[in-house]
Amino acid sequence: MPDVVGLEAARELKFRDPARARELAQALERVCAEVGRAPVSVMHVCGSHEQAIAKFGLRSVLPRTLDVIMGPGCPVCVTDLPEVDEAVVLAQDGVRIATYGDMLKVPGTAYSLAEVKGAGGRVEVVYSASQAVEMARDTTEEIVFFATGFETTAVATAAVILNDTPPNFSVLSAHKYIPPVMEIVAEMPGTRIEGFLAAGHAATITGWSIFERFVERHRIPVVVAGFEPLDILAGLVKLVELVRDGTPRVENMFPRCVTPAGNRNAQAQLWRVFRTTGGRWRGIAHVPNGNLRLRDEFAHVDARRRFRIDLQRLWTHAPSSLAQLCICGDIMAGIASPSRCPLFGRECMPETPVGACMVSSEGTCRIWHQYGGHPSL
Amino acid sequence: MSGAVRVAAGVPSERAVTLKHGAGGRAMRRLIEETLTTGYDTAGESAPAWAIGLTALDDGAAIPVGDGWLVVTTDAHVIHPIVFPGGDIGRLAICGTVNDLAMMGATEPLGLTCSIILEDGFSRAELERIHRSMVAACREAGTTVVTGDTKVMGRGEIDGIAITTTGVGLTRAIVPDAGLRVGDCLVVTGTIGDHGIALMAKRHGLAADDVLCSDVAPVNGLVRAALASADGAIVAMKDPTRGGVASCLHEMAGKSSVAITIHEPVVPIRPAVRSAAELLGLDPLQIANEGKAIMGVRGGETAVARVLASLRAHPLGRDAAVIGECVPGESGRVVLDTGFGRRLVAEVDGDPLPRIC
Amino acid sequence: MCLGVPGQVVEVRDRVAVVDFWGVRRETRLDVIDEPVGPGDYILNHVGFAIRKIPAAEIGETLALYERLLAEADGDLMATDVRGEIDAGREAGQDDA
User: Fold this and answer.
1) Minimal CA–CA distance to A108: which of A70, A146, A156, A145?
2) Do C94 and A128 touch (CB under 8 A)?
3) Interface contact A256-C59, CB threshold 8 A
4) Distance (Å) from the alpha carbon of A264 to chain C's nearest alpha carbon
5) Is B319 in the C-facing interface, judged by CB distances under 8 Å?
6) I need a surface site. Which of A8, A58, B17, B88 has the fewest CB within 10 A?
């Protein structure tokens, strides 16, 4: 067994080895050609996958015949207007809000949290739920943790809630649950998706066996993949192979982190604190069981039950005409790409976002804008 | 602060200055171009015309004097926290200005001014520590403070301390930040991201004082050595401060109307800095540096080899490396070859790192 | 968000681990991990919580998986080329360390 430091170095480099990545990219090209039709369309539902693809410039080496579409995998982007409004109203009422950085600039019906902060509202960025709890311990004022993110992130929120929080701490949950939205996308009329790349970290928690029923029902393969360049390329190779062979099943390409049953301890904590409920995902309309809300047992830390949040006063503002042209919903559902949006790169830019996809570092539009998106590179 | 917050109805955010305007990226450039540099007599009708003046938006301004150039530059420092691993606001205030002069080719400053604004209640011991840092930095740079100003504002009217330094130097030849041509190579004098990451790590509880340290240092000696060996081969220079290497390259490329390709596998970066950047979700190319320079080098392999040798012989330039080249293409476009593929290098627009300088 | 980064445990204090990521240390909560963790173990960290202990053996397993994938996709004729390239890449990678 190599020494510890050597192992670390080897591991780090092996999953980012450019030579192996080139081989995998070539293998992907071959496998796509073997499918015999073009384009082959697959979808991933994880902002971190899109970021990794963008950061490593993988799109420039993906075969032209392969369409890797980003679905509704950006938790910030799918946070609906009323959810942002709830935090905005609390901040306007003088309550201190703690939230993940990306949420600051997401447009609400009338304002974003950044705009309220600019006008004197107390909104602070945290990197973890425990940081928000620490803030509450340092003061007697109310601290509301505006909690966004999918199930992997919700686990962290659940853990802090189960851990004896100070009385001035509460959670405004806008957490979401991914598996139901895969169903929605698979069932959308006009969908061309032939396979799904599932998020490795979410699957670390949930296990990969939860995708088996989805595969049976829709006869579409699901491959669980990690986030290093080799993980993503290898995941895509396997996915296209399954499409080529017409053998839909769940395949785990991230065995170092993902098991069939997942992390039971984390799951227990998640479902002890949260229940699923239907709700709107921004731009995608209703997703049954897509939202995570606090169970009654935790009403005492539920910001929605602790505060009276009057959203009506924000709704006297007419939505901007620009907002009506925004096609984030279609982009997140994978049926349009940013370049087809009339606002992309013009009125809608990272410093002047119209839709949520341009705000979040995991948003399709933001990533495309930042990294030059598509093929011409 | 308690009580309700009213966001003034109908006030569009573009009519207020926000933090992003100080971030060193696109928004700040626009503010400068559209407001802060307008109206002044840059044509020389009633004021002396500076050869490199306001409209050049270079690191400093320059006017011919005798058979050389007088270069002047100024910088305000509001960094927070004022003491950080590797330095403090005093060291930064001296080095920032010395380095701006050096970027224009003025590597032997005539002197610096130093204006300090303090908050009522600021610790005398802290002030003395900052002063000692400034003195030490001046000695390293071979210069001194020649005049200054001191003000005190009421508690809460300013956050602790702000230091503004102005530097003056003479040089035979000016090195602009524009002037690149297709074929020129781009050299960075050392590892990237050290300063900004050290600050962010401190702010976000990543313990790594022994491995994450600001690189704040006066690089005028380093630049002098490189210019001496280069014999005209260094055609452009700029320091990658706020906005990092990304913003620096964007500016250099845009002003020269070239495109640039950078090769990620050869960009020097310390493993701890790369790791901390990943943990914090930041791109090292967009992170501020305070002891580095980007140089455009012309003249092929021999010229580049000479410049690299002189840089690497200097203690501050040991990790100098060629990171890319100027290529034909859309003016101002910077592309990163990641080793796996290619992507655009984004310019910083918002404010990932407030009060980093 | 600090998403899914692997690191090595240096110290465990009650329910908090001090984790080293290439020389950068940060605290990671152990509330949701499903097995005991001690110094030397590798964990996957997500927004400040360790979500998985990564057994060193499985790293090799994943790499073997990729090699198998390559072998199947390439066919035997290419095998030599592939081996050569991978070995060259591995050497280059170790030089960078």
Assistant:
1) A146
2) no
3) yes
4) 7
5) no
6) B17
Least confident of A62-76, B74-88, B273-287, B337-351: B337-351
Phi and psi at B200, nearest 5°, equal -65, -40
- Whether residue B86 contacts residue B213, with contact meaning beta carbons closer than 8 Å, is answered with yes
Contact between chains at A351 and B20 (C-beta distance less than 8 A): yes
How many Å apart are CA A375 and CA B22, to the nearest integer? 33
Residue B265 forms contact with C (CB below 8 Å): yes
pLDDT tens-digit map of A80-118: 889 999 999 999 999 999 998 888 888 888 888 988 998
Best CA proximity match to C11, nearest among C20, C2, C3: C20
Report the percentage of chain B scoring pLDDT > 90. Answer: 66
Interface test with C, best of A14, A34, A46, A165 (most C CBs within 10 A): A14
Interface of A with B (CB under 8 A): 16, 18, 21-22, 54-61, 91-94, 105, 111, 115-116, 118-122, 127, 141, 229, 349-352, 361, 369-372, 377
pTM of the shown model: 0.82
The alpha-carbon gap from A218 to the nearest alpha carbon of chain B, in Å, equals: 33
Q: Which residues, including other chains, have CB under 8 Å from residue A136's CB and lie 6 or more apart?
A: A143, A165, A166, A168, A169
Query: Closest-CA residue in chain A for C52?
Result: A257
Q: Which residue bears the tokens 């005190």?
A: B152
Q: What is the pLDDT of residue A6?
A: 41
Chains touching B by CB (3 or more pairs below 8 Å): A, C
Residue A352: both structure tokens together: 């002047």
CA distances from A274 to A286, A308, B349 (A): 19, 21, 37
CATH level 3 topology of C5-54: SH3 type barrels. (2.30.30)
The reply to whether ipTM tops 0.95 is no
Domains of chain B: 52-171 (3.30.1330.10), 185-344 (3.90.650.10)
Report the distance separating Cα C66 and Cα B55, nearest Å.
55
Question: Which tokens is B239 given?
Answer: 């320091």
pLDDT mean over B266-271? 94
| B229-238 mean pLDDT | 94
For chain C, domain boundaries: 5-54, 57-96
Strand (E) or helix (H) holding B230: helix B220-230
**CA B20/CA A94 separation, integer angstroms:** 24
Q: Do B18 and A118 touch (CB under 8 A)?
A: yes
- Find how far residue B135's CA is from the centre of its chain: 21
Q: What is the share, in percent, of chain B residues with pLDDT greater than 70?
A: 92
Mutate to test the interface with C, among B209, B213, B279, B319 (most CBs of C within 10 A): B279
For tokens 């992170």, the residue is B287
| Residues A304-334: tens digit of each pLDDT | 999 999 888 887 766 667 777 888 878 877 7
Q: Which residue has the tokens 């062979």?
A: A245
